[in-house]
Amino acid sequence: MNRQAPNSLEERLHVLQTHWDNYVAQGQFNEFIEFAVAVNSLAEYFNVLRLSGLVRLCEGLENAVLAKLGDQTSHPIAQQDVLSLQRQIDTLLGSIAHSRTQNVDQRTPEPSAIADEIDWIKPRSVWIVSAAAKRAVADAISSQLRFFGFDIHELCWNETPLPDSTALAVLFIPADDRIQPEELTRIADIRACCPASQLLYLGAQSAIEPIVSLMRAGIDVTVPAEGQTANVLNGILDLVKINEQEKYRVLIVEDSRVAVALIERTLAQHDMDTRAINDPGNLLEMLESYHPDLVLMDMYMPRFNGIEATRVIRQMPAYSSLPIVYLSAESDVGMQVEALRLGGDQFIIKPFNPVLLAAIIKAKIERFREAQRASRLDGLTGLLNHSTAKQRLRALLGQTPPHGQLTVAMIDIDHFKAINDTYGHPIGDQVIRRLAWLLKGRLRSHDMIGRYGGEEFIVALPGISPEQATAVIDRIRSDFCALPHPHPGGVLRTSFSAGVASFPLARTAATLTEAADAAMLQAKRLGRNRVEQARPPHTD
Fold it and tell me: Which pTM value belongs to this model?
């Protein structure tokens, strides 16, 4: 049975501190390994939340820890090394405490019990540090971000003091693409004050040296000058709309119970789900029922060896790209090469470093899932596409308890054909994209948003009544009406109509969608630019 992984920041910090204290007191190698795993797990946690400054501190501590890992004969480490690591730990904990004023967990899903007056999004502050010559660019980006619900603070490069609010992101807009030493100093100062913030730099040269100098100062993302507004909006909205990912699923094919226990313990520290089988004869059935993201395969097992099992997997079209990592004591290089040639993706020799094992598995799964994303997302908006949105809605409905609530909204841009005919399809695409941004910016991280087709969107709001959903969608409708869409001749404004339906009024994903769509058509008939609730079946 898997050990329960730490979930909250407090739990992760407690695990880290406990293993470090135990190691300092006892000097045992196993405690040092557990401490290294805890540091790596904390870095991954901050990485998911896009808290880049804290990720940097965790990675620095992790590198220092791995440099002292060695083996059992090198422990306990020298006292000066203990003190050096303690200083890094203290720096990390101090930065975490400093950033807690913005609530490190604020981007995790909100509770489903929501008051009638829904405060969907807490104030999110973005600082824009711009040169005087680029004030017009800063103002244009500021006005766009305000429409999407951000609290903007515009600063000069040399302005002090800094705002009291903690920034979700800081955008730097220089006078030109020649980076000045004082700019790097300013970036480093703000990075020190905002360890949990995402730092973006607009218009860097497309060359390695200036980008590296910006990264060393603390910049996380450099944004090209071309398409700057769209790129900035995408980058900052991605910080807010962090999708709730399913746990990584790892299938362990291993006949040693001791090895299975160690692997499960290591991966549980990284919040990965695992299943283990000791007989590769059951492999295909487990692949079908468990749907793993990766197979961790022992080389030598009863009945079949790992290479034979891998060759069988690779003959199945559904699993032709599934990552397979060998974990074996086999030290013969020729055998390792043969194993990789016949379908494996990586070879790890036992005894394994648990930090390295977790890092390899996470990297393989991330690339595997990223490769699958293209088939699930809409290319224009980055939202779920039609088929994936329908699948996700069915999954959400299956997770809703009998007396729970799940509300679906269908949204359709009004007179969209006229927009395309009058202003052209590129402007029409821009309108679609900006509605997608608005939905991402105004809804919660665990709400489902999909592009249903053309100018139509579908939204699913777990734990929300139809009255609450109507109020939220209507607020977004009002903001969308006010959102200017620039085109060569000026700006245009448009609106959308929406329909809302809720479980248990409709009890299947199909009937929920149909009821919301019918309510949306009713909104169109009543004059457009409005939100209508679905009526019970017995009413006209």
Answer: 0.62
